[in-house]
Amino acid sequence: xxxxxxxxxxxxxxxxxxxxxxxxxxxxxxxxxxxxxxxxxxxxxxxxxxxxxxxxxxxxxxxxxxxxxxxxxxxxxxxxxxxxxxxxxxxxxxxxxxxxxxxxxxxxxxxxxxxxxxxxxxxxxxxxxxxxxxxxxxxxxxxxxxxxxxxxxxxxxxxxxxxxxxxxxxxxxxxxxxxxxxxxxxxxxxxxxxxxxxxxxxxxxxxxxxxxxxxxxxxxxxxxxxxxxxxxxxxxxxxxxxxxxxxxxxxxxxxxxxxxxxxxxxxxxxxxxxxxxxxxxxxxxxxxxxxxxxxxxxxxxxxxxxxxxxxxxxxxxxxxxxxxxxx
Length: 327
Ligand SMILES: [Zn+2]
Known about the structure:
By secondary structure, the protein is an alpha/beta fold. It has twelve helices and eight strands. The protein has helices spanning 2-7, 12-22, 38-48, 71-78, 96-103, 132-146, 164-181, 186-212, 229-235, 253-265, 280-289, 311-326, and strands at residues 31-37, 52-58, 82-87, 108-111, 220-222, 238-240, 270-274, 292-297. Helix 3 crosses helix 7, helix 7 (164-181) runs antiparallel to helix 8 (186-212) and helix 8 runs parallel beside helix 12. It is globular.
């Protein structure tokens, strides 16, 4: 009775605020999760909002194919508070296997690319002139020794997020995983995922419209490494990439000469730089072919500054930079 009398005349909003601050028991701490690289971390943050603390193992502008793991990385993953580890899968971040082995991670690993339409690599772009189907297992063993840093030249193209339809699959997987470990906030995650998916759908429609206005013969680009296969398949583009899917090796003189020949022959209008790669080769290709340097693309990592600091911003920036250079 006394309590009610005291509160009489206090506006409802103020009252709600008073109650919230007076009852800290109900303020649930955000859940801790880890993502293998910056693009996933941004997606998880967008879905989880302030109910989720997310740490990215590979930072913005970092190379998501190869990682030198630090004791801090292992500590983050081994913390008993860390509930989920989000990985891309498809061979991009298989270095997380070593991390899991050495950290004693107690949470759940979520492969966000589960359910995407996977792009198979042809032999050319996977750097292997062998028959994948017959010798698959032998290759895996050979590669264990070759690739100390844990990236692999698998059968599949891992860069699935470059197609906005796949981005939507990622977001659904993320929302489902968060809802499972934190059912109390499931409605929030679901709502955020729906909003996010709608924005992806709108951007997807937009890029198709812009691309349709570009003559087919001009829809060709050169990128440093082959990270835009999904983008190209989804939006009707042809990509030439001297570095292949993930390799950190320098391309041979012969491979460079072949790229230059193709760019000349097909009159590729523009060559692009990438935020995660050394771009010296691109300048050389542009110089020798007369193609213009079209600008910076964000392939495997967000930018640490500017528009491409989020997944949607990165996609918007890539779409604009590509279409403006080739239109
Ligand atoms: Zn890549």
